[in-house]
Amino acid sequence: MPLFDAADAEIEEIAALINSAYRGEGSQAGWTTEADYIDGQRTDPAMLRADLAAQPGARLLVLRDATLNPALGCVWLEPAAGGAWYLGLLTVRPDLQDRGTGRALLAEAELVAGAAGARRIRMTVVSIRDALIAWYQRRGYALTGETAPFPYADPKFGVPRRPDLVFAILEKALPA
Question: Over 90: is that where the pLDDT of 95 sits?
Fold first, then answer.
């Protein structure tokens, strides 16, 4: 499945895709929803554009079928310190989840990062997402024991319904 760097003209569609998979009524069709514990949008076009502009080397990759329409998924890759790359926003359309698309998208993202020099991939997952953490563990990711705080004070990331949200950090070494 080929991944393409997202063009600016695609940012609106990609933001809608991300929100459909993580939050809101449509997200309930898939298993990646955060709607039970975080209200509001997951992202918006302005945030995606600002993040891309602020992170040199970051890539927002989109997965499309052979006809190039519509977007089936997306993933964020960003170089970090010490040969690590951050992977985020791994998104698959809710109606396509549980069909291997996420596995294929993750594998392609790892290849892209590896080709760019990544030695390992790091990511954050809301710590209460046991099924999602287990899914990543089955793909070689391990909990590092590190956590990062959830941005409760910043509503642009959503409005938490629980007071105990933190991010668990996972990591996977890539082949040399």
Answer: no
